[in-house]
Amino acid sequence: ATLTAVMVGTGVGASQGVLIKGGQALERAHKVNCIVFDKTGTLTMGKPVVVKTKLLKNMVLREFYELVAATEVNSEHPLAKAIVEYAKKFRDDEENPAWPEACDFVSITGKGVKATVKGREIMVGNKNLMNDHKVIIPDDAEELLADSEDMAQTGILVSINSELIGVLSVSDPLKPSAREAISILKSMNIKSIMVTGDNWGTANSIAREVGIDSVIAEAKPEQKAEKVKELQAAGHVVAMVGDGINDSPALVAADVGMAIGAGTDIAIEAADIVLMKSNLEDVITAIDLSRKTFSRIR
Ligand code: ADP
Ligand code: MG
């Protein structure tokens, strides 16, 4: 393709909300035959909502959510935002915006968060987080987690002073464009794979809903990138679509990194293409544009 064609291609992309950072990205996109998708915020809305709370110990919900929100308010994770939003409804004073102070806040990527609030150590996260800290997960909590996963929801555990106190269920619906996009990609002979830090149960339920049959769950950020490299080594030209800090290594490793516009700045910087409308159909828009610019047919 001529330089003019590339400029036209990038220009058309920009006018449709598909920002292509340079001719190379536009060129590589038409060769893509395999796409790795992040789940949360990419295939799903990334606006999760708390749909259920179960307390295993005698505790007032308002007090429970105050401790949980004081911890999660320090996290950037979409799950944390959902929990803090939900916690607001238990406050008697809606006018007073401050949560109790949290000390020693730590965020453990792919696992959850930890902090000390009102002299108590609060942990909010998944089973791995609890296992790492030797918190015992009782059978009823395991059952609640399994139920959430079957319904494509994410179960989140809360411990106070190393004792498991509550289980939250968070629902993050699919983007309206997700099923359609995956089905069109299939008809274009492009293979879709979902890679997520979320647990296997939830991941499989979401994958079934969206129509993806290849799933990798409980993946650390470096494993997302490793998967991309593994596919490349097997001869695939790989695109990665993601929104989070944890997707950045994979976005860089991919032949074409595509960031969701509503995603984090770090992901947007790491990507070759930015989908400004955060719409999955624009993955196809980008590939089509590249095909039109670089293939001799038409
Ligand atoms: P994804 O790859 O789907 O975007 P992440 O790797 O960001 O998921 O997170 C994986 C899992 O770690 C979440 O499903 C959740 O169980 C747990 N987790 C991470 N951060 C938090 C948090 N701030 N609060 C509660 N749980 C968290
Ligand atoms: Mg994500």
SSE blueprint and pairings:
Blueprint: H1 3-15, E1 18-20, H2 23-29, E2 34-38, H3 39-43, E3 49-55, H4 61-72, H5 78-87, E4 102-108, E5 112-117, E6 120-125, H6 127-132, H7 139-150, E7 154-160, E8 163-171, H8 178-187, E9 191-195, H9 200-210, E10 214-216, H10 221-233, E11 238-242, H11 248-253, E12 256-260, H12 265-270, E13 273-275, H13 281-294
Parallel strand pairs: 2-9, 2-11, 9-10, 11-12, 12-13
Antiparallel strand pairs: 1-13, 3-8, 4-5, 5-6, 6-7, 7-8
Helix pairs in contact: 1-13, 2-13, 4-5, 7-9
Adenosine-5'-diphosphate (ADP) binds near residues 72, 77, 111 and 156.
Structural summary, described in words:
This protein is of the alpha/beta class and 298 residues long. It folds into 2 domains: 3-45 and 173-294, Rossmann fold (3-Layer(aba) Sandwich), CATH 3.40.50; 49-171, Calcium-transporting ATPase, cytoplasmic domain N. Helix content is 42%, strand content 24%. α1 (3-15) packs antiparallel against α13, α2 crosses α13 (281-294) and α4 (61-72) packs antiparallel against α5. It is elongated. The chain binds adenosine-5'-diphosphate (ADP) and magnesium ion. Adenosine-5'-diphosphate (ADP) is lined by residues 38-40, 72, 75, 77, 79-80, 110-113, 124-126, 154, 156, 196-198, 244, 246.
